[in-house]
């Protein structure tokens, strides 16, 4: 067993961390509050190949795995810049296209994922089918050489910044007549596609949208994999990368909060000694640090299993990592706020600004309850409860 | 144009640094060793010249075997190859001896331009560029905040306390740079992956034709006799503001003759 990164992974970690620190949390907060995006950071990370680390080299990517993408996600967050679109665009969309796209789709999209110039968001959640994607009501029907999509999606991140949205719809299987999931790459400016921004209580440069698909017509080659049979495996292939990178982003945020808190309590004294010398302050921070490190281990394990091609084991580990990370991140940020006293609630000290993001991490992209359902059923062998 | 960049591995200047108690040399064992900060600017300068004028960039490091880590990082920024001078006999070398070894290594590389940082964060003596140029019999353009290459003519803006001086020389020459000269790039992921496949040649003193007696503790022209820790910082005076804080501050400043 080996817990060390390769020298290349270590250098990637150091380099991404240095880039992230140059921007920093105040850059992130300023962008969020101004209703802008972190375009400069995205562009620089893209140019350096950090966003395309996992894209195969024949398409101009780095040829690394989800381990590398998780490093990028974690280190930017640990510098105070959690980039949610890493989870959607390079982690989900690029993986789905790389693993299940037709050769033409790979050629069309992967170079853009490799150099980060292409952003593709991901739309699965629906108002009446949140945690239960078997009830998706967005349907696609064949019409001549095209497909026509109609339905509604909710909470879709980054639609305003993305050229494409990967839409999960359902389509009637010609042979069985059953509705099967099918994934479509839809241009965000397609006629019939409209959006409404949802007001969210999260300090984030990324926005969530309602997405209305009103007879959106796409050519046949928009269907991922070119066949309805590709739908379910394509959908599943995006889930582990999503869980692993979102866990990495959460734990990076947690590290950032703990670092801020540790330096604050070491320097702040109100009873003649640093507040950090009180166990009532230090122990909660130490407890959070333990939870964070445990979650990081699970993220590393999940990424390792995924990169080794062991998808089923990776699925268990990725879900556990996602669960552990989001719990640890909420704990770490909440504790960091607490030990800052009143400063914890200010914008300036940059910890309360993290709360909405980590809190959302317990709900999205998969809620803690659904992970516990998964573990109960698949690890503990309990009957399906829903 | 063939450019040699001098890259030194040093203990991270942002962390606790020590000298060894047994032989008074820099303690590398317990330190987090990194590329000397100023050398990253030298690498960047070499790479941007290469981008404009073509040619080749070679990293040259003298240091213990652990320095390969810094060499790989340097290579991940983009240089083509590296030479690592490593020899147990080098331990304890003074600046004069180091310049002899580096000059010998550069001599074997047939360089048009040698770029280095203006100083290292551990030694901070600022003499290496001058001594190397002297040994090679070529010009030293030191302390550059700007470097322009026009054919075989090199022009720098030498940063001074008051402003800058314009100095020119023709190649081959040594140029040392300050951190005002550019903004070093971060290693790209492709650069990181390519670095492990780039040629890294290790040379011994024998390969360079330098006698072991001329370097290390035996050949040192200076000796660290003794060292001690910097005294702990004295607690400062805290001015509690109970209405007269401004007056107290001015009193302090005038008593120390700052105002
Ligand atoms: C910031 C943010 C960004 C998002 N970005 C995207 C995006 O880019 N694309 C996208 O498609 N979606 C996105 N989502 C949506 C997100 O994935 C869903 O909100 C999430 O999956 C939960 O679905 P829901 O909101 O419909 O909750 P519901 O399914 O309505 O669940 C409500 C509550 O009931 C619990 N629950 C539901 N079913 C069960 C059960 N069987 N057993 C136990 N408990 C249960 C849930 O855990 C939850 O606590 C985003 C959400 C947020 C907050
Ligand atoms: C929204 C808001 C409104 C406010 N409104 C008012 C107001 O109207 N009027 C007003 O006067 N103030 C107000 N405050 C200030 C508030 O009362 C203080 O922030 C609070 O008392 C904590 O003090 P502090 O911020 O200096 O934290 P600190 O005293 O610096 O404490 C930092 C951390 O160390 C812990 N700590 C400190 N000492 C010890 C110890 N001996 N043992 C164990 N743990 C310790 C604290 O519990 C905290 O977790 C407000 C604050 C906020 C956030």
UniProtKB/TrEMBL annotation, chain A:
A GO BP entry: fatty acid beta-oxidation using acyl-CoA dehydrogenase
Molecular function in Gene Ontology: acyl-CoA dehydrogenase activity; flavin adenine dinucleotide binding
Gene Ontology, cellular component aspect: cytoplasm
Pfam family, one: Acyl-CoA_dh_M
Cofactor(s) needed for function: FAD
Acyl-CoA oxidase/dehydrogenase middle domain segment(s): 121-201
Keyword Oxidoreductase: yes
Top-rank lineage group of the source organism: Bacteria
All residue ranges annotated as the Acyl-CoA dehydrogenase/oxidase N-terminal domain in the record: 6-116
Acyl-CoA dehydrogenase/oxidase C-terminal domain span: 230-379
Alphabetically ordered keywords of this record: FAD, Flavoprotein, Oxidoreductase
Family as reported in the entry's similarity comment: Belongs to the acyl-CoA dehydrogenase family.
PANTHER family linked: DEHYDROGENASE, PUTATIVE (AFU_ORTHOLOGUE AFUA_7G06510)-RELATED, MEDIUM-CHAIN SPECIFIC ACYL-COA DEHYDROGENASE, MITOCHONDRIAL-RELATED
Record-given protein name: Acyl-CoA dehydrogenase
From TrEMBL, chain B:
The protein's required cofactors: FAD; AMP
Keyword Transcription regulation (UniProt): no
Domain of life where this protein originates: Bacteria
Disordered: region residues: 221-244
UniProt xrefs under CDD domains: ETF_beta
Occurrences of domain Electron transfer flavoprotein alpha/beta-subunit N-terminal (ranges): 23-212
UniProt keyword annotations, A-Z: Electron transport, Transport
Any GO molecular function: electron transfer activity
Recorded GO CC terms: cytosol
One Pfam family named in its UniProt record: ETF
InterPro entries in UniProt: ET-Flavoprotein_bsu_CS, ETF_a/b_N, ETF_b, ETF_beta_N, Rossmann-like_a/b/a_fold
Listed transmembrane segments: none
Subunit composition and interactions: Heterodimer of an alpha and a beta subunit.
Family the UniProt entry places it in: Belongs to the ETF beta-subunit/FixA family.
Described purpose of this protein according to its UniProt entry: The electron transfer flavoprotein serves as a specific electron acceptor for other dehydrogenases. It transfers the electrons to the main respiratory chain via ETF-ubiquinone oxidoreductase (ETF dehydrogenase).
Protein name: Electron transfer flavoprotein subunit beta
Highest classification ranks of the organism: Bacteria, Bacillati, Actinomycetota, Actinomycetes, Micromonosporales
């Amino acid at each position: 067993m080996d817990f060390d990164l390769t020298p290349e992974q270590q250098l990637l970690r150091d380099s991404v961390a240095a880039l992230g620190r140059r921007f920093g949390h105040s850059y992130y907060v300023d962008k969020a509050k101004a209703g802008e995006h972190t375009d400069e950071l995205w562009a620089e990370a893209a140019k350096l190949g950090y966003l395309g680390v996992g894209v195969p080299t024949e398409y101009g990517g780095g040829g690394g795995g989800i381990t590398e993408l998780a490093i990028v996600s974690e280190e930017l967050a640990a510098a105070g810049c959690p980039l949610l679109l890493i989870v959607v665009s390079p982690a989900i969309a690029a993986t789905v296209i790389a693993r299940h796209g037709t050769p033409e789709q790979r050629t069309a999209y992967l170079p853009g994922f490799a150099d980060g110039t292409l952003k593709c968001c991901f739309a699965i959640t629906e108002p009446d089918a949140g945690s239960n994607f078997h009830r998706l009501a967005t349907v696609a029907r064949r019409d001549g050489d095209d497909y026509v999509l109609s339905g509604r999606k909710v909470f879709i991140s980054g639609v305003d910044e993305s050229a494409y949205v990967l839409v999960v719809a359902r389509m009637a299987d010609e042979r069985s007549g059953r509705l099967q999931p099918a994934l479509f790459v839809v241009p965000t400016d397609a006629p019939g596609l409209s959006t409404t921004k949802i007001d969210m209580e999260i300090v984030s440069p990324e926005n969530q949208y309602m997405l209305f698909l009103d007879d959106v017509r796409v050519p046949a080659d928009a269907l991922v994999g070119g066949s309805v049979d590709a739908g379910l495996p394509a959908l599943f292939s995006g889930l582990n990368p999503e869980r692993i990178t979102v866990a990495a982003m959460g734990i990076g945020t947690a590290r950032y909060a703990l670092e801020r808190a540790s330096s604050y309590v070491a320097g702040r004294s109100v009873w003649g000694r640093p507040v950090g010398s009180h166990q009532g302050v230090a122990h909660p921070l130490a407890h959070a640090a333990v939870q964070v490190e445990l979650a990081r281990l699970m993220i590393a394990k999940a990424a390792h299993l995924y990169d080794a091609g062991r998808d089923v084991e990776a699925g268990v580990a990725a879900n556990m990592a996602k669960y552990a990370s989001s719990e640890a991140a909420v704990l770490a940020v909440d504790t960091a706020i607490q030990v800052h006293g009143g400063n914890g609630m200010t914008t300036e000290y940059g910890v309360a600004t993290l709360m909405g993001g980590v809190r959302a991490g317990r709900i999205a992209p998969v809620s803690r309850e659904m992970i516990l359902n998964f573990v109960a059923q698949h690890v503990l062998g309990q009957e399906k409860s829903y | 144009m063939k450019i040699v960049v001098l890259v030194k591995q040093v203990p991270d200047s942002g962390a606790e640094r020590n000298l060894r108690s047994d032989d008074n040399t820099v303690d590398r064992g317990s330190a987090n060793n990194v590329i000397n900060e100023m050398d990253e600017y030298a690498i960047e300068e070499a790479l941007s010249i290469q981008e404009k004028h073509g040619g080749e960039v070679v990293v040259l490091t003298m240091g213990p075997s652990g320095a390969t880590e810094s060499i790989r990082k340097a290579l991940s920024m983009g240089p083509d190859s590296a030479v690592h001078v490593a020899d147990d006999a080098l331990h304890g070398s003074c600046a004069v001896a180091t310049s002899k070894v580096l000059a010998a290594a550069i001599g074997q590389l047939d360089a048009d331009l040698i770029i280095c940082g203006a100083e290292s964060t551990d030694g901070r003596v600022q003499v290496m560029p001058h001594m190397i140029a002297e040994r090679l019999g070529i010009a030293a353009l030191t302390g550059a905040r700007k470097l322009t290459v026009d054919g075989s003519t090199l022009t720098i803006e030498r940063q001074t306390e008051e402003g800058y001086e314009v100095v020119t020389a023709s190649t081959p020459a040594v140029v040392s740079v300050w951190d005002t000269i550019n903004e070093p790039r971060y290693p790209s992921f492709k650069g990181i992956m390519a670095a492990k496949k780039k040629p890294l040649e290790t040379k011994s003193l024998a390969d360079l034709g330098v006698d072991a007696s001329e370097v290390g503790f035996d050949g040192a022209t200076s000796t660290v006799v003794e060292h001690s820790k910097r005294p702990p910082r004295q607690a400062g005076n805290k001015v509690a503001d109970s209405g007269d804080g401004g007056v107290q501050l001015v009193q302090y400043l005038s008593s120390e003759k700052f105002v």
